[in-house]
Write a structure and sequence with these properties.
- The complex is a heterodimer of chains A (114) and B (112).
- By secondary structure, chain A is mostly beta strands.
- Helix content of chain A is 0%, strand content 56%.
- Chain A contains no helices and eleven strands.
- In chain A, strand 5 and strand 6 form a beta hairpin.
- Chain A starts with a strand and ends with a strand.
- Chain B has 112 residues and is mainly beta.
- Helices cover 0% and strands 52% of the residues of chain B.
- Chain B contains no helices and twelve strands.
- Classes of the chains: A mainly beta (114), B mainly beta (112).
- At the A-B interface, strand 10 of A face strand 5 and strand 6 of B.
């Protein structure tokens, strides 16, 4: 248990569906992140939030929409996804800038788009 | 731009044997270096980190890593591998407020 909780753990959705991934941390961290982990690819940073403000968006398609209502919660809203979006989506948090401090990861949501 | 290279995609080690996983990084300033481990279906867990000071750092589960600036390396070692160490290992680099850059990972298989 790392203190970062992701729900659901598994999700199967059709290409026309709308769903949301949720991430919650009670570590008192100020920064939260979404990563995508696909088979045979490095971890891809998608979004970064610092103090609820989005500070980084790595050219992620608009069918992925993040939301950070407070420092403890992070959502990833999904709509009209493609099969190639199937992956493990990992949430992480850190005290501040990730590069200098330890990042704590959730267990991930395994997403399958059919 | 920062980058991380883990040259070995898979490594098989006999239980009880020693282990070394390689990591080379590219970064313009003094790097902060990390090793994470990921078991199947799980998130990433931090094994150890190097920020400054002693170049040999100790981590959890009996792992250690040595920072060698001249070789731009941060190799992970363990003197005696256990079957429970089978997992995927990721090296990462960052600095200050930059986000972490991860390598592609090395899958460790442990044979009886």
């Amino acid at each position: 248990e790392t203190g970062v909780t992701q729900t659901p753990r598994h999700l199967v959705m059709g290409m026309t569906n709308k769903k949301s991934l949720k991430c919650e941390q009670h570590l008192g961290h100020n920064a939260m992140y979404w990563y995508k982990q696909s088979a045979k690819k490095p971890l891809e940073l998608m979004f970064v939030y610092n103090f609820k403000e989005q500070t980084e968006n790595n050219s992620v398609p608009s069918r992925f929409s993040p939301e950070c209502p407070n420092s403890s919660h992070l959502f990833l809203h999904l709509h009209t996804l493609q099969p190639e979006d199937s992956a493990l989506y990992l949430c992480a948090s850190s005290r501040e800038g990730q590069g200098s401090t330890e990042a704590f990861f959730g267990q991930g949501t395994r997403l399958t788009v059919v | 731009a920062q980058s991380v290279t883990q040259p070995d995609i898979h490594i098989t080690v006999s239980e009880g044997a020693s282990l070394e996983l390689r990591c080379n990084y590219s970064y313009g300033a003094t790097p902060y270096l990390f090793w994470y481990v990921q078991s199947p279906g799980q998130g990433l867990q931090l094994l150890l980190k190097y920020f400054s000071g002693d170049t040999l750092v100790q981590g959890i589960k009996g792992f250690e890593a040595e920072f060698k600036r001249s070789q731009s390396s941060f190799n992970l070692r363990k003197p005696s591998v256990h079957w429970s160490d089978a997992a995927e290992y990721f090296c990462a680099v960052g600095s200050g407020y930059s986000t972490l850059t991860f390598g592609k990972g090395t899958m460790l298989l442990v044979s009886p």
